[in-house]
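Shipment paperwork, digital attachment
Item: protein structure file
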Amino acid sequence: MLGRFVTFRVGLAAAVLALSAGAGSLYAGEATADQILNALKPKALTRGLSPGGSAPTQKTLSQDDQRFLDSLRTKRTRSLSNSERERVATIAKEKPSIDLEINFDYNSATISRKAMSAVTELGKALSNPELKGGVFLVAGHTDAKGGEEYNQALSERRAESIKRYLIEKFRLAPENLVAVGYGKTQLKNPGDPLGEENRRVQVVNMESSKEARN
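Attachment content:
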């Protein structure tokens, strides 16, 4: 349900099915900063359907959802509960996102050398003034191999690893990056539960600066 996903082929659990079944998903193996920027730009904002029955544009967050999202931005001490993760996925539905290939070292949350160029391009895009003020979901996913508890923890560590790199190398505000792990609960390709496409990190533009405070 997440609009256009940012999937990092990182062995992170496939987040909520809502995150993986969105319309208009964009997958980018060697995406440039400009391609990532264009994928994450918010659509024209509206509080309802477009006039004349045309396709709806991105909706603004309700006050309740905005308060919930703000509470996650200051969360520091614990993992999200199942209900919180599901709510994040619902809010992320149809939000702009993109799929990137970001590999981690085996059984580790360390970003591999091979993945550094992809993470760097992501950092450049999120640093662009056109995305300034946005709040971005960094969602970790794994394939179906291994236990649920293990994969959940691994997906969280990998999402946090991407977040930490973006903060340290590109000085992005910590409160504007929400790291969430989904373990193996929602596979992108249930027909091939061990497929590499299930191992990923998704980055979603949860709100634009205009949307956030209107």
